[in-house]
Amino acid sequence: MAELNISERQAGDVTILDMDGKVTIGEGSIALRTTIRRLLSEGKKKILLNLGSVGYIDSSGIGELVSSFTAVNKEGGTLKLLNLTQKIQDLLAITKLLTVFDVFDSESDALSSFE
Amino acid sequence: MNKEKKEINLPSRLKSIDKAVVEATDFASRAGFSEEALYAINMAMRESVANAVKHGNQLDETKQVEITLKNSSEGLEITIRDFGEGFAVEEIPDPTNPENLMKADGRGILFMKTFMDEVKWSNHARGGMIVKMLKRR
Predict the structure, then answer these.
(1) Residue A97 domain-assigned?
(2) Residue A38 neighbours by CB distance under 10 Å
(3) Are B91 and B38 in contact (CB under 8 A)?
(4) Which tens digits make up the pLDDT trace of B71-96?
(5) 1.10.3210.10, 3.30.565.10, 1.10.760.10, 3.30.470.20: CATH of B5-136
(6) What is the largest CA-CA distance in chain A?
(7) If you measure CA to CA, which chain B residue comes closest to A70?
(8) Model confidence over A24-64: pLDDT tens digits?
């Protein structure tokens, strides 16, 4: 089984990525990077990352979230985060990135924020 | 029963990171560390071995990462040695400075310091870096 499974669904013009597994150095980080680059190449620039089933993330994974955010912004899009586990929230606090990302607990609130 | 000390040598490839993490957390679990401590050990171990494999040994599989796990009266002592050129830890930029916030890397050392009670870096007399980390019970 892959380290990280990413399922894609569409809610209007927002692409939601349901992520399940680990975002760590190597396979998990690369899977996220590849998916984000592909969405941008398809012109999908409103992206919501659902991290509710991500049980583990390391500094490489945090770095990949930052790179994804930057890549999407550069294309004039927006990347937001949904359903952070307490552990991921703590890591974003430690790294002072909580203020960088728009973070939501509710999918409908997150989707409304893109409008 | 938990052995008091374990030595592991791993080749410098990314898959060794997971292996090292499993070894360390199993060792710590047998030594009776809490779930919270096991998560912290997992995080710090992953970052330190990733640094040794990627930045120290530059993913050169002919170079080993030498790991020692020791269950002492102080807690869990972890030593990780690589065979790279070394670095000055004080010269690593603070990833929480606003100018560094959006950089893709440079957070591993912050995580190691956050999750362990002590982290010390030194240069080995015969080359390479040594990281010593302590997690108290």
Answers:
(1) yes
(2) 11
(3) no
(4) 999 999 999 999 998 888 889 999 99
(5) 3.30.565.10
(6) 36
(7) B102
(8) 998 889 999 999 999 999 999 999 999 999 999 999 999 99
Which range marks the domain in which residue A47 is found? 4-108
AA identity, residue A35: T
The whole-angstrom distance between A60's CA and the closest CA on chain B is 7
Nearest residue, CB atoms, A59 vs list B47, B96, B102? B47
Alpha carbon of residue B21 to chain centroid: 9
Q: What is the CATH number of the domain that holds A32?
A: 3.30.750.24
* Phi, psi for residue B92 in degrees, rounded to 5: -75, 125
pTM over 0.90: yes
Q: What residues of A are in contact with residue B42 (Cβ under 8 Å)?
A: 56
Q: Find the closest chain A residue to B94 by CA distance.
A: A95
